[in-house]
Amino acid sequence: MAGKKRIAIGLSGGVDSSVAAALLKSQGHELLGLTMRVYDESFGVQEGAKHACFGPGENEDIEVSQRIADKLGIAYHVIDLRKEYRERVLDYFRDEYLAGRTPNPCVRCNTLLKFGFLLDRARESGLDFDAFATGHYARIGQRRGKSCLMKGVDPAKDQSYFIYRLSSEQLAGIVFPLGGYTKPQVRAMAREFGLETAELPESQDFIAGGDYGSLFKDSALSEGDIVDEAGKILGRHRGIAYYTIGQRRGVGVAAGSPVYVSRIEAKANRIVVSSEDKLLSTGLSARELYLQDPSDNHLEVRARIRQNHAPAAAHADILDRERLHLNFEVPQRGIAPGQSVVLYEEDYVVGGAVIECADKRKE
């Protein structure tokens, strides 16, 4: 990044964002810290379950962020986005499960809030900055003469999947200081900078403690049947919001051999399980398409169907401005409607979409 700039840095109270801020400060940039306030106490998420995107630990995270800002000598601002988060993330999360799909709140939050409302509200409040930085493990490069999102160099921490919808125009004003580092290197830098976040554990949950009860007041948390593909009842589930396609652990039925969640039937309030081979799909259809270059019609890509999935070789046919169809060279396991599929050419993110359905594998 050429020249010294005034950069807004998203602070979460974790090690990644605090190291990103310290790095930029050490490079001579003028910084101001921003944090989204999203937790609404009326939801009553359990106390003591911290280090989550949504939960009562948010106040502590803000206090940590304030101390990091003070240590680095930068201004710090908390932006209230509770209404936007409730309407755009929590309501979406609930509605997707009620429709039998598996939501991806991290993609939704990054797209609409962190790189959207947060910056809009900050500027509306009178804050001025040239660029916005976060602690995401991702990089920005050039493809076909435009800024393009790239994977972070640490394959274990690469977060390009969650932010695949960032456009070239947005990327021109974004900085990812950690994209060229591994997580162990970031931990080491936190110690060198003397940051109190150096040994903090990773944030894992979307909602603190996986406590979805505050979001669902209806059948998504009502018990129901777990059945096999023939409709035979094998057991009971504790609420469809606690299950996802491909899940094995925690299903809680004895079938003589391992079984996996193969389908969520929301209207019937039941979970369908099957053997692992029934989870394999040769392709998928997806909607809400984003392409880095809209002129592309056919793409040979490596496709990632969830964050912790190794990208697989596939051919993408762009059906129209909103939809694509993907064929995998090798059938893939556990494709879940509602999740995103992200398309890569080498390390470059060339597009992505929301999975609508998986192609049934021919017997």
Structure overview:
It is a single chain. The chain is of the alpha/beta class. The mean pLDDT is 90.
Sheet with the most strands: spatial strand order = 14-17-16-15-18-19
Question: Which radius of gyration do the C-alpha atoms yield?
Answer: 21 Å
Return the string of H and E elements: EHEEHEHHEEEHEHEEEEEEEEEEE
Protein structure class: alpha/beta
Helix content: 10-25%
Largest sheet: 6 strands, antiparallel, barrel
Low-confidence stretches: none
Taking all residues together, what is the mean pLDDT?
90
User: What is the number of strand segments?
Assistant: 19
Question: Beta fraction of the residues?
Answer: 25-35%
Morphology call = globular
Distance between the termini: 53 Å
Q: Helix segment count? A: 6
Task: Please give the structural blueprint.
Layout: E1 6-10, H1 15-26, E2 30-37, E3 52-54, H2 58-72, E4 75-80, H3 82-98, H4 105-124, E5 131-133, E6 138-143, E7 146-151, H5 168-171, E8 174-175, H6 183-193, E9 205-207, E10 224-227, E11 233-237, E12 260-265, E13 270-274, E14 280-291, E15 298-304, E16 312-318, E17 324-333, E18 340-345, E19 348-360
Parallel strand pairs: 1-2, 1-5, 2-4, 3-9, 5-8, 10-13
Antiparallel strand pairs: 6-7, 10-11, 12-13, 14-17, 14-19, 15-16, 15-18, 16-17, 18-19
Helix pairs in contact: 1-2, 1-6, 3-4
Please outline what is shown here.
The protein contains six helices and 19 strands.
